[in-house]
Amino acid sequence: MSGPRYRFAPSPTGFFHVGGARTALWNWALAQSQGGTFVLRIEDTDEARNRPEWTQGIIDALAWLGINRDDPHFEGPYFQSEYAQQHIDAALRLFEQGDAYYCDMTSADVEARNKAEGNQGYQGWSRDRGLGPGPGHVLRFRVPQGSTVVHDLVRGEVVFDNAIIEDFVLLRGNGSPMFLLANVVDDMTMGISHVVRAEEHLPNTPKQQMMWTALGHEPPVWAHVPVLVNEARKKLSKRRDKVALEMYRDEGYLAPAMINYLMTLGWAPKGGEEIQPWDRMQADFRLEDVNHSSAFFDLKKLAAFNGEYIRAMSPEQFLEACRPWLFAADAPFPADRFDEQVFLALAPVVQPRCATLADAAGVIDFMFLAEPVFDADAWAKATGTPESVAVFRSVLAAYESLADWSVEPLKAVVDAAAEAHGLKAGKAQAPVRVAITGRSVGPPLFEALALLGRDETLRRMRTAEATLG
Known about the structure:
Elements: E1 5-8, H1 18-33, E2 37-42, H2 52-64, E3 74-79, H3 84-97, E4 100-103, H4 107-117, E5 138-141, E6 147-152, E7 156-161, E8 169-171, H5 179-189, E9 194-198, H6 205-214, E10 221-225, E11 228-229, H7 245-250, H8 255-263, H9 278-284, E12 295-296, H10 299-311, H11 315-326, H12 340-350, H13 359-364, H14 376-382, H15 386-400, H16 407-421, H17 425-437, H18 445-452, H19 454-465
Parallel strand pairs: 1-2, 2-3, 9-10, 11-12
Antiparallel strand pairs: 4-5, 5-8, 6-7
């Protein structure tokens, strides 16, 4: 496919980071809106940490975000390890051109010399020694004098003084290529025109731009986007924060909600409306509109986004989306007691009470349990006054002879009992709710009673009444 070529180049060394997910989405949006290509490259050269399941995890996570391999804008995945010889060939070409040189100094040698001379870092001591390849010899890039100007679509023009950039290593002492070199050669090989990545990579950019130029290529368009931070405004960390995209997926966050939320971290959709469909965001997204400052990954806001998307689902869509949790091994009710029609009838009043799909089973579990899990403290509080006990008994008596077992008559009975005993509606409903659901909160009471049925409602209320003495 013609047009600009963007790339996403994760390492398969762990779960898929939400920060990487946002970067992938921004690259995907640009490739789609500009008629270009999204190239997936798996940077798998860290053999000690790479695992095949992490690679598949990346592919699955991208697919969950709508970045699918069968889309015409998608290309790959490519694997960096398959291009090792090209990396080495490029390094040797730089040596032959005089843009790189061999150095036999070990880390200990560098440290000792710096201590003696009062310097820091590598000072180019082997530049003119004329060394060739050999055991333990690293190949270093010869950093030119002057400065390097990086033109960044997000950060503008960034100038680096080459004097503070040491001659960096291209090939290790064992002949294997370093990441910076491999990254550049891969981008050249794959015709990458735009490199959109996190700002933490910005310090490496002048080194990479030098290699692009030395190898006779025009550098790509750079764009370094702000990192994601936690509530303490510290960069999201795998060790400290909940950053794995798979965890959110498995907890019942909807992919469209996650996509929508991630897109807005550092960028604001047009019109001020944050909840927007992918097609509109994809068409409107521009790197020039991305903020410079770090973006707060707000779990509460993510839950709010997810709740909006859950409420927008039809009952049938909600049921299908909830199935993995409704029939999970640890579901709060037996699978054979679940009734789809009851769930569908309650769905419109359950959806507003769910921040995630996983919440649904816990909201309506009492409908599918032989006995609800009874909260004794909630019952004691709901029946803590003579008036509340009187209301409960009055409602039970009225329900035993109620002819029309539907929402409005059920509600009218409680309202009448509340008025007769001087209680507000919420106080009057409380003991009935706990008797039926086992707890003090849940979906609208009378819709639940209507679906639960006369016999089961009366049975639960009589069981609860027996505890009153």
